[in-house]
Design goal:
alpha+beta, 10 helices, Butyryl-CoA Dehydrogenase, subunit A, domain 2, 50% helix, 4-stranded antiparallel sheet, single chain, Butyryl-CoA Dehydrogenase, subunit A, domain 3, binds flavin-adenine dinucleotide, Butyryl-Coa Dehydrogenase, subunit A, domain 1
Amino acid sequence: MILTDLNDDERMLSDALSRFAEQELAPAMPGHLERHEFPAELVRTFGEMGYMGTSYDPDYGGGGLGTRGAAIVAEILARTEPSFAAIFLCNSAPCSLISRYGSDEQKRLWLQAANEGRMVASFGVTEPHGGSDVANIKTTAVQDGDDYIINGMKLFSTNAGTPTHGFSTVVAITDPDKGAKGLSSFIVPVGTKGFSVGKRASKIGWRFADSVELYFDNVRVPAGNMVGNRGDGLRQILTVLSIGRVLMAATALGLSRRAMDLAKAYGKDRKLFGKSILEHQGLAFPLADILTKIHAAELMVRHCACLIDANRPFRNETSMAKLFASELAVEAALKAIQVHGAYGIFEEYPVSGLLGEAKVLEIAEGTSEIQRLIISRELMD
Ligand SMILES: Cc1cc2nc3c(=O)[nH]c(=O)nc-3n(C[C@H](O)[C@H](O)[C@H](O)COP(=O)(O)OP(=O)(O)OC[C@H]3O[C@@H](n4cnc5c(N)ncnc54)[C@H](O)[C@@H]3O)c2cc1C
């Protein structure tokens, strides 16, 4: 089988999701973007159709299609509306944490609810002292009998505060004297006393998705809400972020394809100097380079997804895929705007929104510099 071939289940997923994207997502997009409004109803429908849980175990309401399946979802969503893909990506990180490390009870209660579209989840890692330095967090979780009491705050937690937000996963210091081995992860349900979220703010990217602050003011959760073992928090988060990077790369791939779709649709009808602008090599050759990189990004995404699903080492590869595909997305967005000339600057033209959407992909879940840091460690081996 060729790496990019879809199996029967993946083909069915791709066809059904493409119909959802075309018939429901695309028509609703402009209104939501204009009103800067989280698309609560669409998210609910998308969840109820089972797409949020595409990759997870069918025993917990998931689709059982692994990371390959989730990458297909991210790519198709992003080809229609990249910021809707963000809602999917950011729900995937906390679900992936519970799926990999959670107890059976946690999976039944939280993963299954998210997989069945009854709620969305948010991930709470980044803090004000610098998101890139993941280990340097200040939020604490102090044991008190059978409970932990959490105090602190998180930044930019995507999906939090939205109408179907059901829980956040949060990493906190449980053992201050143990450094990197003193962090643990917790599930914090919405509605827990002392747990609140900040106000949403408009952004130039992930415009559909809300990214807000999480506040923990003496939040008491049962010890049973700890995910996995005490002290494993950092290791878990680094793995989940690394898996998330293949979905970010898939989103970047979908966005780059959308940029090329829009460039092609506009460019072929725009005639200057007696021919279509796409026949001018000055414009066509850079687009040819982007098409070539799209092919490379697709292979990287599929390869990384296969590595994860086969339980093979994937950390460097997913960093490479995220780095390559997110920088490609920015290049593709810029070039597609250039093809549109002045129209590319006007919000009325969908191409204008792609640049901000692409730029987020170079920052969230680890910046390009952090990906280069991870990859360059290979040189020291
Ligand atoms: C739209 C959006 C949604 C997000 N959603 C979530 C979410 O749901 N949950 C969550 O926990 N976080 C979320 N984040 C946070 C995101 O993961 C962080 O923004 C990211 O990790 C970078 O952290 P920072 O913004 O604090 O930048 P900083 O860490 O302050 O970095 C600033 C700059 O310094 C550079 N830099 C840092 N260290 C080095 C180094 N060693 N070498 C070279 N350069 C370096 C960085 O690359 C960056 O360019 C989101 C971010 C955005 C933009």
